[in-house]
Design brief:
The complex is a heterodimer.
Chain A: H1 19-26, H2 30-53, H3 57-86, H4 89-108, H5 115-122, H6 126-131, H7 141-160, H8 162-165, H9 171-193, E1 195-202, E2 206-211, E3 225-241, E4 246-253, E5 259-265, E6 272-273, E7 283-290, E8 293-297, E9 301-305, E10 311-314, E11 319-321, E12 327-334, E13 337-340, E14 345-348, E15 357-363, E16 374-378, H10 381-387, E17 401-405, E18 411-415, E19 424-430, E20 437-442, E21 449-450, E22 455-461, E23 466-477, E24 480-488, E25 493-495, E26 498-506, E27 509-519, H11 523-544, H12 554-562
Antiparallel strand pairs in A: 1-27, 2-3, 3-23, 4-5, 4-22, 6-7, 7-19, 8-18, 9-10, 9-17, 11-12, 12-15, 13-14, 15-16, 19-20, 21-22, 23-24, 25-26, 26-27
Helix pairs in contact in A: 2-3, 2-4, 2-7, 4-7, 7-9, 9-11
Chain B: H1 2-10, H2 13-34, H3 39-67, H4 75-96, H5 100-119, H6 137-163, E1 168-172, E2 178-182, H7 183-213, H8 221-239, H9 247-266
Antiparallel strand pairs in B: 1-2
Helix pairs in contact in B: 2-3, 2-5, 3-4, 4-5, 4-6, 5-6, 6-7, 6-9, 7-8, 7-9, 8-9
The chains are: A alpha+beta, B mainly alpha.
The structure holds protoporphyrin IX containing FE.
Amino acid sequence: MNPAPSGGSPLPTAPAAPADRMVAWHRLSYTRQGLGLAGFLAAVTALQHVFTLSESPTVRWSAVAAAAVALTVLLVKRGRQAYFYLSTVQAGVLTMGALLVCTVIGTVVLQDLPPQDFARRYGAAAKPLQLLGLTDIFHAWFFRSLAGLIALASAVSIVRRRHSLLKWRNLGILAAHVSVLVILGGALAGAIYGAKGMIHLQVGESANQFDIKPKVGQSHQSGGAYQMGFAVRLDKFELDRHAQEFNFYTYAKDDKGEFKMIASDRPRKGAIVGQPAPGSAVQVSVVRVLSNAVRTLQGARHLIKLPGGQQLQVELGKTYDLADGAKIKVEAWLPDFSMDMTTRTAISKSDEPNNPALAVRIGTRETEVAEARLQYLFGRDDMREMMGQGGHGNGKGSTFAYFFDQGSGNAAWIEGPIGGYNPAVEVEVRWPGSPTERVMLRGKDSPPVRLGADRLLSFHEKPNDIKNYNSTLTIVEAGKQVVTQRIQVNKPLRYRGVDFYQSNYDPDNPNYSGLQVVVDPGLPVVEFGLWLLFLGTLHAVALRDRRLPKLRTREVVVAATARQGELL
Amino acid sequence: MTDFTENLLRQNAWFLTAMLAFVAAGLLYSLAAVRKQGEKFHTLGSVAFGVATVALLGFMTTRWIEAGRPPFKSLYESLVLFAACMAILYVAVERFYKIAWLGAGTGWFGFGLLIYAIAKADAEIINLPAALQSIWFVPHVVVYFFGYAAVFLAFASALMHLWRPQAQFDVRTAEGGIQQMTYAGFMHRTILLGFVLLTAGLVIGAVWAKAAWGDYWVWDPKENWALVSWLVFAIYLHLRLGKGFGERTAAWMTIGGFATIAFTYLGMHLLPTAEQSAHVYQ
Ligand code: HEM
């Protein structure tokens, strides 16, 4: 038995084994052991090719039998040495080193592409890469054998040191190595007994089975259907959006001559906003923030004729109850309605009431008014007629119609409720040497302000991406509804060993939900193993190195190399 | 360059204070390193790291409030977090270890991180995508960046070891005594700390991936490289148990390990497999 390496903490060592039996193995160098490992992995790869390429079952199974026999012979003749060797630190280093190399390869060589894409990407190299198993490395037989070897090596290394590892100070090391077994064992259980697939549902639909995604190593071939033994029904699908937000955005022309957003500012009263081009001394400051800017004329009246025939006088920004639980919300008034063809948005060309239009949302019992589509009601006779909006001439009376009464007052901006349709800011633009200019920038429909050469300041809505998406699922088993639960990304539903993950949505179809379904009895095992790995490592590190570690200095290394026979 | 200047002008007072504090720490510790009597500079240097810590915590708190989410999403935000982890770790290190050159290295490195952050400054605070809205998000990221910070210290010690293998410095022991330590010794300690943190990051990442996608591990390039850098240090720990693993080898391995971490953090877009990844910084 060796003394502990100079300086380091004393190591738990194996019970002494008769030296004669070990000598030959002690003399193995890393190079030779590495070559041995490579040879083993190559043999496994060869076996995989024979097995998968050969048509004849006889050839296939003889190859497997031959491999099994070879392995048995090796174990019978060299079992003790194999056991001893696998338990050494070098085995750990080599197997982990091989795992490292494979992992790197798996990020450098494109993985698991359809064969024709490989040929296109790699040309003449495609074939050899494929033969070596590098094009789907994480599912290659040799890679899995490597995982098996790592598990075996950890197992053997702890069995051989069981006596010392059971002492408190070494328990962390034990746990770390056991965790490797647990994790790989759990993964194996999942690979054998697990199934994975997608369920695509429309609201109201249910499914009691899913198509099994091909298991690893059988890519590009179907795995059949998995019967869950119960049904899952999609009751409801909801998209959560981030809160609506309007900001200042500075755009600058990039090298390609396209405007690119380079900076943003929140609209705060008194703030200096925008980022002028270098050398341009323009300054933009915020004078006023309106949560909902609506242009109106003092004394003007907005009348809506309802489908039932009665008239309603409305105010901008307000919501009105209609019959049958329906509601109408008046979002904005556009005095001079026009479609902007570049942005495909409705804007007001001027502040004159040349083509007055009301932007409204009409909610029904089913649709919340806030979520209803924005539509425009036109106040001019010809426009009403063109759009088929009730009123004069066509006499149908079945749709909403808008009538505008100009009144006599002056034009003014009024402020609507928070979170309104068209937030706005009034800014002061100061160019040195010119009079200060006041500009009203509306979030929905104002052109940007120039900030010097090739630079613009715009006030508009922050791109409002999806916050989360939710499916309300009901599990139906034997005709009974057992569970109803709302799932979202990061909050799956588990029922009888089947996990449902919110996975997909379709921006164009509000009733669709894509669920990833996972059946994996190994998952809790893997999870336990992962935490065990962490705790074991923590314990090992915390307890083993209280004392100052002194690594060997050069002189000692030379001496140690001279005694390289004693590798352990 | 004008982009950089413009971005610099947009940084707030917290950020600029932290930048100055890192410069001050770098200068003070550099002075401590070249002078014989460096005690005073050490004290001032650690005060500078304290200031950087406070400023960056201030920065992150205000940004957290403004964004309504943890400020660890973009590359810019993560560089700030990295710098904060460096400063916090070094304040802790200074309590026990008086290592002027490492203080200097950390100061300049922190400054470098913030300079890089300016070059990569966000034009706008972006929203958090659904997959990141999880209780695991903050622990995962914070643990990883403390791990990176520890590995940076190991890396700096490795360089110092290669330069001055015999140099020794004072260490305050838990019992209050003073001991001598070499750069190689300190390097090993920081690797142990870093390895525990990298393990925690890896484990949390896997547990989180399971909750979000139903898979612990999908062999995504970023995951793979996190595994690679973890394996480098796992192999290091095992190699150390065998004979013939000298300090120079250990130092070179540490340098290699730091390189894999730097690549994991910043190099993913260079990989041909990056297009298949869910993890690449835009
Ligand atoms: C691939 C299979 C592995 C083998 C064969 C192996 C083998 C060994 C051996 C022989 C030791 C020395 C213990 C002693 O001296 O009695 C050791 C130590 C250790 N192993 Fe492993 N190991 C393996 C994988 C791992 C993994 C994946 C980890 C992950 C954390 C790990 C963590 C440790 C730790 C923390 C120590 C203690 C190191 C120290 O004292 O600083 N091992 N291992």
